[in-house]
Amino acid sequence: MSSLALGLGLALLASLALNGSYLLQHVGGRSAPAVAARHPLRTLRGLAGSPLWAAGLAMGLAGWALHVGALARAPLSLVQAFGAGGLALVAPAGMRLLRERLSRAELAAVALMVAALVLLAAGARTAAQPAHVPSLALALYLAIAAAGAAAIAARRPGAPLLGAAGGVLYGAADAATKAATIAAQHGAVAAAAAWIAAVLLLSGGAFLCFQRGLQIGAAVPVVALMTAATNAVAMLGGVLVLGDPLGRGPAALAHLLALAAIGAGAWCLAPAQARLSAAPR
After folding, report:
1. What does each C-alpha distance from 120 to 33, 91, 222, 253, 261 come to in angstroms?
2. How many whole angstroms separate alpha carbon 46 and alpha carbon 239?
3. What is the rounded CA–CA span in Å between residue 154 and residue 221?
4. What is the pTM of this model?
5. With helix as H, strand as E and coil as C, how does 231-243 read?
């Protein structure tokens, strides 16, 4: 198995774990104390007091570890696409367990995402990892993302926009994680440590925004906006900043269309995700 194929397989597995963790955290977090950005440790203790939320956290950490493994082996835009595409597996399986049916639009979204993933997999070619990270450009990209997330989170009403802000920060954290894996693979320990610090800061902010959004609002807009923002920021970072290979001519256009189709499909499947999270415990 090639390194690229392994990376894309890990991305799918990571998606299964992460999507499952969102559902558990949404259900478990409803009975926890209010999420407060000014008191992160107290917030974490309150959330961890829910067994369901704690199980979701464990599943999410496992998914994140798989996601990092995928980023170490494949371009960021492809990892993000296959991660989002995992929802095409989670939603039908979950709805079948609940003995419910997906709507026609949701079935169409599943088909669209599967077709886009097949197109990406068929066109993917193993490429050497970049020898360096464009540090200044990526730092600027992360700063813009963080400022944008802060502006979004500060607006009212809160819950859906908190989901969007969390997604922007999660997408930026994915870009920083990819930079850390590149630096580590080339022995740049100091650079890797700096990018890891950025990952922790961005992920911490994303965590607080997303958890508060899930706690005070309906799952549909919160999860949908979080997913869409994560996909957009991470994919754009991979293509525009980290130089992910797109191919040339028609191949590049097909690649971009497939990425857009996966983002649109993930948005359409958000209602199914919400119905799963609203199911009896």
Report:
1. 43, 21, 28, 11, 11
2. 39
3. 17
4. 0.76
5. HHHHHHHHHHHCC
